[in-house]
Amino acid sequence: MPMLFKPESMNVELTTNCPLSCSQCYCKLEGGKNIDKDKAIDWIRQGGEMGVCSVHLSGGETLCYPHLYEIVSAAAKYCGTVYTALSGYNFTGEVLNKLIDSGISGIFISLNGSTEEINSLTRDGFALAISALSLLKEKNYSETWINWVMHSCNTDDFEKMLKLVESFNIKNLVVMTVKPDSNFELKTPPTAEQMKTFSELIKRHTGKVQIMVEACYSPMLALVFDDEHRGNSNVGIGKGCGAGLTSFNVNVDAMLSPCRHLDYFESFGTLDEYWNQSSVLRQIRLLEYIKLPPCNECYYGPHCRHCIALNSKLNGSLYIGNKTCKLHLRNRT
Questions:
Q1: Mapping DSSP to helix (H, G, I), strand (E, B) and coil, where does residue 254 land?
Q2: In the chain, how many domains are there?
């Protein structure tokens, strides 16, 4: 498996403050911590020096972070591209203008359903998200994205979700995989039949909204890029989880980890030392070669590198062998 020895993207956790209590949330939000501004900027600077070209700012709720605009400005300066995810809380026209002036490249709004009833099964804040989308449409902001997490309870709503997104003139929707919540429980993963039906929907979709599947959702990518005649094109380093391969995370304590979903935090003097000397990253980079059941027997195995945070949080270990996956097959069907 080819390796990139320089990271392409990084996530920075700005705060654990959040006004919402989403049932799907994987964050430990108690305590209300904020990352030290100067430490965050220093890691971003080092990221840029190593080749990072994309910075993602996350929380908690990023608009609860007191130095958000300074971080956005630093990320734009050192890395070029910077995104943040918002719930819609405290989002105003003035906030949008400040984000734009600071150099924001795109804004992700989190929404899991076309109605409050469906959204509330996994997320809070439906009215906040709709208010934010209305404002972004009113201001003709063109770089709005939707983060939509696929659950068993909202999959059948997806086509209505697309119509809602299109009504706000939004061009991009990202399909994300459900991950273990803050109690390390995986509650509502979609069924295999839902996944297969959904992948066919994506293949035949021709609407104005571009549907993108996040790299973490590798089983879905393997389905979407599987062709009976041409084979499966979900290959290479970008075929799935990029933790420690193409990306890394800085948490609110300014510690480094492979991904914001992997609680393997390490302290190094420089990013170069972490990227090249971390024993955790070394272990992650070997996982592709030692897949365990059912992944080592699955038809999609060569075309899938599933989210390794699943086994880390559910089973306390780093390995590729996803027994929670509903998709695994010995032969193509």
A1: coil
A2: 1
